[in-house]
Amino acid sequence: MTDNLLELKNIGNTSAHWLKTVGINTPNQLQAIGPISAYKRIQERGIKTSKVLLYALYGALEDVYWSDIPESKKAELNALANQPQEEALVD
């Protein structure tokens, strides 16, 4: 995996900045934290985003464009993002 967040699918300057704001500086850190926790950290920081960021983070780790993620997986991600932090685990 690359060391640069910007080399991941779905990650642009703004989302990379948001990730770095919450202490996620590399793809390996994003992988270790996971897309749900990363999304929640950004939200808890008061940064207003849409669910597309959640899908983008998941897609970045799966090397798939967020728009290609099946609706069933998006629904699963949404459900997990609405759970308390300790329960929100995703494959």
Task: Provide a short characterization of the protein structure.
The chain has helices at residues 13-21, 27-33, 35-44, 51-62, 71-81.
Tell me about this structure.
The chain is mostly helical. The protein contains five helices and no strands. It has helices at residues 13-21, 27-33, 35-44, 51-62, 71-81. The longest helix is centred in the middle third of the chain and has 12 residues, at 51-62. The protein starts with 12 loop residues before the first helix and ends in a 10-residue tail after the last helix.
Fraction in beta strands: under 5%
What's the overall geometry? globular
**What percent of the residues sit in helical stretches (DSSP H or I)?**
40-55%
- Tell me the radius of gyration: 12 Å
How is the main sheet built? none
Structural class comes to: mainly alpha
Low-confidence stretches: none
Number of strands: 0
Encode the helix/strand succession as letters: HHHHH
Mean pLDDT across the residues is: 92
Oligomer: single chain
What is the rounded distance between the termini? 18 Å
Number of helices, counting only DSSP H or I runs of 4 residues or more: 5
Give structural attributes.
single chain; 91 residues; mainly alpha
Which helices and strands appear, and what pairs or packs with what?
Layout: H1 13-21, H2 27-33, H3 35-44, H4 51-62, H5 71-81
Helix pairs in contact: 3-4, 4-5
